[in-house]
Specification:
The structure holds 4 protein chains of 4 kinds.
Chain A (H helix, E strand, L loop, with lengths): L62 E5 L15 H6 L8 E3 L10 E3 L7 E2 L5 E5 L14 H11 L11 H5 L22 E2 L5 E5 L7 H5 L27 E7 L3 E6 L17 E5 L4 H10 L4 E2 L7 H9 L1 H5 L1 E2 L2 E10 L9 H10 L2 H7 L2 H4 E3 L26 H11 L6 E7 L3 H15 L4 E7 L4 H4 L4 H6 L2 E9 L5 H9 L17 H11 L4 H18 L2 E8 L2 E2 L4 E2 L3 E2 L4 E2 L5 E2 L2
Helix pairs in contact in A: 8-11, 9-12, 15-17, 16-17
Chain C lengths: L1 H32 L4 H6 L8 H10 L6 H14 L1 E4 L4 E4 L6 E2 L4 E2 H36 L4 H15 L2 H15 L16 H35 L2 H8 L4 H29 L3 H7 L4 H10 L3 H29 L7
Antiparallel strand pairs in C: 1-2, 3-4
Chain D lengths: L1 H4 L3 H4 L1 H7 L12 H11 L1 H26 L43 H37 L1 H15 L3 H11 L11 H31 L2 H8 L4 H37 L11 H8 L8 H28 L5
Classes of the chains: A alpha+beta, B alpha/beta, C mainly alpha, D mainly alpha.
């Protein structure tokens, strides 16, 4: 049921450029930087905010101005699934766990937020217990209890009302047929048996199956407390009750909203938040190019979507050393890749898939995504910044330009020495995916693999077209250009969804090509591994097995180019989201 | 040719030789040529006549003979650049061909006015009849709107429109055809013009209304002592009205004479044709009307010789003269000019033996 | 007159009714004919994570499983009496005119449309004023100076104007004036007139000029042709025969008649534009009805598409009606009975 | 037609209508209308030059079709990534990479040659322009003649139908429809089905404009003597329609078609610009302009040549159409 949260995205109007595609990334950056800690606050220049805080400050006050080229899926903590939204929501909501507000890899570490400490699992990993901090209040002064958290999680289960949010709880909790607090026999909407609240400070989650990484689930916005009395269902997003340092002042959905300090937020209960600015404003549906220009002119502080600047601004920044000094270009945990559909002949033959792996010109793939500034060539699925990731290159070629001899060899083994013909799909509103398809068409054409390019509407790409196995098979889609970013920067978060063939649904898939029992076996092994280091190694094994089966053609590990306006303080990229950490930002002057 | 022109100019409508300098309107060797893609259209090609105050001239001819073009030239209504006008049009001593457009404009409506043939299209559909008369009056008279309006009502009353104070606010389409023509006349006469040109004033009207309108013009002419030109393709219209009649063919005058002469003793075969094709109430009914055969000539390629020769039954009587030489416009009897190669005897003979009995 | 207006209004309502039915059919029926299942259609309304069961439930909830006529009936009744939609714990009432309720953004469509209308009206009316003035003035001058250098130049520019696609002139203008010279604010920064009239005009100046140029070109050509024809009319000759000066002849008698065809076209153009200047708004990223429609189509948000189409059609129909009624004001010959 | 393109429909619709009113009324003896028109047209240098240009373009488009699709001599999809700046993605060198090898410059990212692409795209643009016009002229003429000739309820129904069509925001509909029709429809090969759909959609939505004009012409022709004569001689409706009316409608149809072609080329460009055009890697001028719109801030040259291609083509058709109209109706000059 989960799906990449990133790649579905802002509806780019035809003329609009949603160039780097989509939403904020899920992974971190920074293993490529050697400057640990904030020891050198005066260091400026490109990538100064990677791995450490740039311009650190504790000065409070001022207004922090965000803008969004698209619009939120929702401000409701139970109904949002964008990385940037999960980053931003920490300003007004407190979930049980959260990513620490810290530079680089530290930002990818979970830390207790509403909970006093990390979850306490039962021996079988099927029951997880959290204690809630005392003294936390809603913005109207009402104390937060465990029942508010339970209510928040319960309502997020209702996918009729909250279609956007993740479905991990629906899958993992022992629901026993429970669907929604709105259809609950319990007048307080607390009839869900999978979550128990023995007292106001304690909350217990009961799972169907053992799961070692439940703390990640407890870090999802859907564990933010929601007061039943103020819940208006799908209208709640217009008036979210805050538990964080900021509360909503004025909300005009689709246009803008602003937040001011929440007097009922007690810093004593919250070790994680600095809350520097006095006020936060957000404009949505801003023209993306205009947004970049306003960033560079200092008229705006942050592009909240966190996918980097548009190609026009990128060209400007890269060409101008002054601008370049104010930019960061971190690697993220997002992979641009292409599915190779084993359901379509002759790709059911592994040798034909290997031929594609060998023939593909990965530098062309990289060019499609903006060259060096847009990302690094990927040779396997797991991005290098995922902790424990290893370089796996099973189909090497000189300069990544493709190995035509090996490709022809594979074709011969496959029984198609002269190549074959198949279709490749991409999302119509994504120029980079179009360039990818065209690039693959060129490079595969050199060994006689003829690709016909098909574009499908971005909005329905996964649901009706390339993500629907029946459709893909009947339309002879041999290759589907896709992208994937993890919900969390770890092996489970990144690989499970795109390699586990048991997750394949009738529609809406990102993966349906990797169908290999050996991969599934490796996944099971990784999920039940209790030791963290061994678990990381196990996920690398999943990566290797997936590459051996040659069902997915890795393309580019994305890099975002971010512009860092001068008046921002305390700026750093967090690996938790591969974006600037919105919780830490302050403004000077 | 030259000689006869001088004669004609000296003459008034009624008596050409009499009081040469008092002719109110003198047209001398008028040529109106239109350059087009297909060649030069010679709509009027050397026309000479004159007219005195209080007199009426009828200009008769088929469509395309140059009647309307002549009248528009007098009024100065041809657009500069589209028409090449040469010769002289002298109105009360002023040459209109060489005058500035502004001078001509100041004369239009005031000293010379025109009644157009189709009052439905000739009046602006979006303005009331009164408004259009008021406008005509106020261009030349510095008076208030209410004064002009009173004048307009008077004019409408004078041309015989019932309830003029009400109809003054009607739009042209609310008038009947006859009433519209009356309104048109009221507009033309609103500034007491000394020269009135009526271009086919009755074409679209039924016979009784026709008579009323013509009577009206006569009455008004008497009141104002204007010089009047009536243009028509129908000789019958001018029979009672005109003092003189000029018959035009292919942009030229082919016969000119007093109304009485033209009807009693027409000299030109074309005039015979016109008479033959005219129904007459004052004579016995002949078997049938005699239309002129053939069609009017192209004004770009006017036939050599006599322009009428392709349609003239008598063109061969003088050898090939009719097809080679242009006939001179000469005086055949006092005040009676024609352009024809036939000799006087031939004409006399033909008229009495062949033409007259059939009419 | 009143009876005529009532009759025309009734006709307009019936026309809109047919338009809505056809629109509805195209958006709901054509996908079905093209092979989309009820589930496929419903899947557009669920989140990214829905399973087959959720989709099935959504299809039922949205009524896709009902006969098409029932669905259409619901759509129409919502317009007149509003409709109720469940938000979970409560229901919200979408008051009439409820032009649908987006299940993607969980919002009634009508307030969105009202919101976007301001932009589109600002764009369309502003541009219309400019093009009407310059187009007609150029056309009249060209007609009066037929064959002169001015005429040739003006008509040359006008011909170029109608031959240039607006997304090309739009891009050119952005490149030159916005990013090149920095004179004008690039699009997308639209602010309401009430908030800041200067910024409002600043954001709209390029779209106005570009859109106006395109239309002014057409109007200049039309005006010139009509003017030439009018100046050959008998009543113009009459006006001259009265001794009126040329200015009066042209303005009072000539231009007056030219206004009727101009008015007709102008009404229709404005009507179409008010329904969304799709290309202009896309090129300049103006958040108007046209951009809204394109975004809705891209997102497959059918209630929005339906709503905006209907509003667009309404503008066109109203414009037609107004033009017809204005005829009576302009042309005394027109009588309604 | 132009309506959805935000030009005034007046410019293309009402104008010929007004101009065509008098067409055919004025006959000069001795020469047929066609001969006169041809004579006049020959004298109109601008129109003749435009006509020649159109002819050249049509020939070029056919050649492009043959070279590209039949013989595969040119390759509009060949990459020249070595000429692209790897960081910025735009062509190296000034003016969008214009050089002797690539006189129109290169496309960003992949570095495909713009001259070849514009050349190869010409046949699609022109084909859609012509064929869509044919569709709307055929439908419009049939509906217009039927409505004008039979009048009564037939006229009412057809006229209302045209009203309904004219009340639609056409561009939106076209976009929605093109998006809905599956790619594999009609069993046509690469690009084929999309071209077919574009032709159909553009043509189908444009017919009411010509329909109205033809209806008005038919209504007035119907009252003329020769139709009365024919009918009084006992001719049946089909005979009157096809033998008497249609020949007299040829002139307005011809003029209107000439003026509709550029509008339809613009319509196609607009649809392509909005993202529902031809499938890559094939390109029409509109899709190229659409891509250029993403790059105009850093590579403004990209849009110049596709834009000029559209402009010159549309201009040539408009000039020729104007000339043709003037030739067929001298009064319009």
């Amino acid at each position: 049921m989960r799906k990449q949260r990133l790649v579905t995205m802002v509806a780019a109007g035809a003329a609009t450029v949603m160039a780097l595609s989509a939403c904020g990334g899920g992974g971190g950056s920074s293993n490529n930087n050697n400057n640990k800690g904030g020891g050198n606050p005066s260091a400026t220049g490109p990538n100064a905010a990677i791995g450490k805080a740039f311009n650190p400050s504790d000065k409070k006050g001022g207004t922090l101005r965000f803008a969004n080229a698209g619009d939120w899926d929702s401000l409701d903590p139970g109904d949002t699934y964008y990385a940037y939204s999960w980053n931003f929501i920490r300003l007004y909501g407190r979930s049980l766990m959260m990513f620490a507000s810290a530079p680089g890899q530290d930002g990818a570490k979970l830390t207790p937020d509403l909970a006093e400490s990390k979850g306490v699992p039962s021996e079988d990993l099927k029951t997880w217990t959290y204690k809630i901090r005392k003294g936390v209040k809603f913005d109207d002064g009402t104390p937060v209890t465990s029942k508010d958290v339970k209510y928040g999680v319960s309502r997020s289960l209702d996918k009729d009302i909250f279609p956007n949010g993740p479905t991990y709880f629906n899958e993992f909790l022992d629901l026993q047929g429970y669907t929604s607090p709105y259809k609950d026999s319990d007048p307080n909407g607390l009839g869900l048996k999978a979550i128990e609240t023995p007292d106001d400070q304690t909350i217990v989650f009961k799972l169907k199956k053992p799961f070692a990484d439940f703390d990640y689930f407890a870090g999802m916005p859907s564990t933010m407390p929601v007061p039943k009395a103020k819940d208006t269902g799908s209208k709640y997003k217009e008036k979210v009750v805050s538990t964080g340092p900021y509360k909503f002042e004025k909300v005009e959905l689709g246009k803008s909203f602003s937040m001011v300090r929440n007097e009922n937020w007690d810093p004593a209960t919250d070790p994680n938040r600095k809350a520097l600015p006095d006020k936060i404003t957000v404009q949505v549906n801003v023209n993306p190019d205009d947004l970049d220009n306003r960033l560079m002119s200092g008229d705006l502080d942050v592009d909240v979507v966190g996918s980097g600047v548009q190609p026009a601004a990128q060209a400007k920044i890269l060409a101008d050393p002054n601008l370049k000094n104010n930019s960061d270009n971190p690697l993220s945990a997002r992979l641009w890749f292409t599915n190779i559909n084993g359901e379509v002949a002759p790709l059911d033959n592994i040798e034909c898939r290997k031929a594609i792996q060998y023939a593909a010109d990965r530098t062309g793939y990289q060019r499609a995504y903006g060259g060096n500034a847009g990302g690094e060539v990927a040779s396997s699925l797991l991005p290098p910044i995922i902790p424990g990731a290893e370089k796996i290159d099973l189909y090497p070629s000189k300069d990544n330009a493709g190995d035509l001899d090996k490709a022809k060899e594979a074709l011969t083994k496959c029984g198609q020495p002269n190549g074959f013909e198949t279709n490749i799909s991409y999302r119509a509103e994504r120029p980079k995916e179009k360039a990818t398809a065209e690039s693959l068409q060129q490079s595969l054409g050199k060994v006689g693999i003829k690709l016909n390019i098909k574009a499908y509407p971005t909005g329905d790409y996964a649901k009706l077209y390339a993500g629907k196995p029946d459709f893909a098979k009947s339309n002879n889609l041999g290759m589907m250009v896709f992208g994937w970013a993890a919900d969390w920067p770890n092996g489970f978060g990144f690989l499970k969804e795109i390699t586990d063939s048991r997750n394949i649904k009738p529609a809406g898939n990102t993966n349906f090509s990797v169908k290999d029992p050996k991969v599934n076996e490796a996944i099971d092994k990784a999920m039940t591994e209790k030791d963290e280091n061994a678990r990381q190694k196990a996920w690398v094994e999943v990566d290797r097995k997936a590459m051996e089966s040659a069902y997915a053609l890795p393309g580019v590990v994305a890099k975002g180019l971010y512009y860092r306006p001068k008046n921002l303080t305390n700026v750093f990229i967090t690996d938790g989201f591969s974006e600037y950490d919105y919780l830490a930002l302050g403004v000077s002057g | 040719m030259k000689h006869s022109q001088e004669d004609l100019l000296a003459g008034g409508a009624a008596r050409p030789s009499d009081r040469p300098n008092e002719a109110f309107l003198q047209v001398r060797d008028l040529k109106v040529h239109f350059p087009t893609d297909d060649g030069i259209v010679k709509s009027v090609d050397g026309l000479t006549f004159s007219l005195q105050r209080g007199k009426t001239l009828g200009i008769v001819g088929e469509s395309g003979s140059g009647k309307s073009v002549t009248s528009l030239s007098i009024m100065g209504l041809h657009k500069r650049g589209t028409a090449n006008i040469s010769g002289e049009i002298v109105l009360d001593g002023q040459n209109l061909v060489t005058a500035t457009p502004e001078q001509v404009r100041s004369l239009r409506g005031k000293r010379m006015a025109m009644i157009f043939q189709d009052p439905l299209t000739a009046m602006h559909p979006y303005y009331t009849v009164g408004n259009q008369i008021i406008e005509a009056y106020r261009v030349h008279h510095n008076v208030s709107k209410s004064v002009a309006r009173k004048h307009a009502v008077e004019m409408l009353d004078r041309v015989g429109i019932p309830q003029p104070d009400k109809r003054v606010d009607d739009y042209p389409h609310q008038f009947s055809g006859g009433m519209r023509q009356r309104a048109m006349i009221a507009m033309a006469l609103s500034c007491d013009p000394e020269l009135l040109i009526a271009d086919e004033p009755t074409t679209a009207l039924d016979v009784t209304v026709q008579a009323q309108i013509l009577d009206l013009i006569v009455d008004l002419q008497k009141d104002f002592n204007s010089a009047v030109i009536i243009i028509t393709h129908d000789l019958g219209v001018v029979a009672e009205l005109a003092d003189d009649i000029m018959v035009m063919y292919a942009g030229r005058s082919v016969e000119y004479g007093s109304s009485r002469e033209i009807f009693a003793a027409p000299q030109h075969p074309y005039t015979w044709g016109l008479l033959g094709s005219m129904p007459r109430l004052d004579r016995e009914r002949s078997e049938r009307l005699l239309p002129i055969k053939g069609t009017p000539p192209s004004l770009i390629n006017v036939p050599e010789g006599c322009p009428f020769n392709p349609r003239c039954a008598f063109a061969g009587l003088n050898g090939d003269l009719s097809t080679t030489e242009r006939p001179e416009f000469r005086e055949v009897s006092p005040g009676h000019h024609i352009a024809c190669h036939l000799s006087g005897e031939q004409r006399q003979h033909l008229w009495t033996t062949e033409i007259k009995p059939k009419l | 007159m009143l009876a005529y207006i009532i009759r025309r209004l009734l006709g307009a309502v019936i026309l809109l009714f047919v338009v809505s039915l056809v629109t509805f059919s195209i958006f709901f029926l054509v996908p079905r004919i093209a092979g989309a299942s009820v589930e496929d259609m419903a899947s557009r309304y669920v989140g990214k994570t829905a399973d087959a069961e959720t989709i099935r439930q959504m299809a039922e909830k949205l009524g896709f499983t009902d006969p098409l006529l029932t669905q259409y009936g619901r759509f129409v009744s919502a317009i007149f009496v509003g409709a109720d939609y469940s938000t979970g714990p409560t229901t919200v009432h979408c008051p009439a005119p409820c032009l649908g309720y987006s299940f993607i953004t969980q919002n009634p469509v009508w307030p969105d449309l009202v919101d976007r209308m301001g932009v589109t009206i600002s764009l369309a009316v502003g541009a219309a004023v400019i093009w009407l003035f310059f187009g007609v003035a150029t056309g009249v001058l060209s007609a009066l100076r037929r064959g002169t250098v001015f005429d040739r130049a003006a008509m040359g520019v006008a011909l170029a104007g109608v031959s240039l696609p607006i997304f090309f002139t739009g891009l050119l203008s952005l490149t030159i004036f916005s990013y090149g010279l920095g004179w004008a604010v690039p699009g997308g920064t639209y602010v309401n007139f009430a908030e800041n009239p200067l910024a409002w005009a600043g954001a709209l100046i390029l779209p106005w000029v570009t859109l106006a140029f395109l239309n002014a070109a057409g109007y200049a050509r039309l005006t010139r042709a009509t003017m030439l024809e009018t100046m050959n009319e008998d009543f113009i000759r009459t006006a001259r025969a009265k001794g009126l000066n040329e200015r009066t002849v042209v303005v009072k008698h000539g231009l007056r008649s030219v206004l009727t065809p101009i008015l007709t076209i102008f009404g229709l153009d404005l009507g179409i534009l008010l329904g969304g200047a799709v290309l202009t708004e896309s090129t300049y990223s103006l958040p108007g009805l046209g951009k809204y429609a394109i975004d809705a189509i891209v997102n497959n948000d059918l209630p929005k598409v339906l709503g905006v189409t209907l509003v667009g059609a309404t503008f066109i129909v109203i414009a037609n009606l107004v033009v017809d009624l204005l005829y009576a004001v302009v042309d005394p010959r027109v009588k309604y009975s | 037609m132009t309506a959805p393109l935000e030009a005034s429909p007046g410019s293309s619709e009402a104008q010929p209508e007004a101009a065509l009113k008098g067409m055919g009324k004025k006959a000069i003896q001795g020469r047929s209308l066609g001969q006169i028109a041809w004579m006049r047209l020959k004298r109109d240098r601008v129109a003749m030059a435009s006509g020649v240009l159109i002819a050249v373009m049509v020939v070029a488009a056919i050649v492009a079709l043959l070279l590209d699709r039949v013989f595969g001599v040119i390759n509009p999809n060949a990459f020249h990534q070595e000429l692209i700046d790897p960081e910025q993605g735009i062509p190296t060198g000034p003016l969008g990479g214009i050089s002797l090898d690539h006189p129109f410059g290169l496309e960003p990212i992949n570095g495909r040659d713009l001259l070849t692409r514009i050349f190869a795209g010409s046949w699609i643009s022109l084909l859609i322009g012509f064929a869509a016009t044919l569709v709307s002229v055929v439908i419009g003429t049939i509906m217009g003649v039927i409505a004008g000739y039979f009048r009564g309820w037939v006229d009412t129904v057809i006229s209302r139908l045209m009203d309904v069509f004219l009340a639609f925001p056409l561009l939106l509909f076209a976009i929605a429809l093109v998006g809905v029709v599956p790619d594999s429809a009609f069993g046509l090969g690469r690009d084929g089905s999309r071209i077919f759909v574009l032709i159909f959609v553009i043509g189908f939505f444009s017919w009411p404009y010509i329909g109205r004009i033809i209806r008005a012409q038919t209504l007035s022709l119907r009252e003329r003597e020769f139709v009365d004569a024919s009918r009084s001689l006992g001719a049946r409706a089909p005979h009157v329609l096809f033998k008497e009316l249609l020949p007299n409608l040829v002139a307005p149809i011809l003029v209107y078609s000439t003026l509709l072609i550029p509008t339809n080329i613009l319509f196609e460009a607009a649809l392509s610009f909005l993202g529902v055009g031809i499938q890559p890697p094939s390109a029409t001028w509109g899709t190229m302009l659409s891509e250029a719109s993403r790059w105009y801030q850093v590579d403004a040259w990209f849009m110049v040549f596709p834009g000029l291609a559209i402009f010159i083509t549309v201009l040539a058709f408009n000039l020729f159409g104007d000339g043709l109209r003037d030739a067929l109706d001298p009064r319009a000059r």
